């Protein structure tokens, strides 16, 4: 399996615009995409405008397919202007929690 961790620092005062859109995208990804196994949205405890997205896909092709979905396209149109900085870690999963 293939995983990405996206670190997103928002522009000041944009959290209320970002969060509903990202939560909708995360829910639709897991619900509607057979290749998306996990899409967690985490907010930093010390910085309310810093978010981490933890996403697990069957493979890199499933991530590519995710980026073609209507819910992803809608979310990017909203969140892209809100982002101050963003970085991505790409990783192969070596162990999976069986209880998840």
From TrEMBL:
Pfam families, per this entry?
Answer: ABM
**SUPFAM superfamilies referenced in this protein's UniProt entry, alphabetically:** Dimeric alpha+beta barrel (SSF54909)
Q: What keywords does the record list, in alphabetical order?
A: Monooxygenase, Oxidoreductase
Tell me the superkingdom of the source.
Answer: Bacteria
Q: Does the keyword tRNA processing apply?
A: no
MF terms from GO for this chain are:
monooxygenase activity
Q: Can you give the residue ranges of the ABM domain?
A: 2-93
Q: What is this protein called?
A: Quinol monooxygenase
Q: Which organism is it from?
A: Zobellella aerophila
């Amino acid at each position: 399996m293939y995983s990405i961790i996206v670190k997103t620092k928002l522009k000041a005062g944009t959290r209320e615009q970002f969060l509903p859109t990202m939560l909708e995208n995360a829910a639709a990804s897991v619900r509607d995409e057979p290749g998306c196994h996990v899409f967690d949205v985490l907010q930093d405890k010390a910085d309310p405008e810093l978010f981490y997205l933890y996403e697990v896909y069957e493979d890199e092709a499933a991530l590519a397919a995710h980026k073609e979905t209507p819910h992803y396209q809608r979310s990017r149109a909203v969140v892209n202007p809100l982002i101050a900085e963003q970085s991505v870690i790409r990783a192969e999963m070596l162990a999976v929690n069986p209880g998840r």
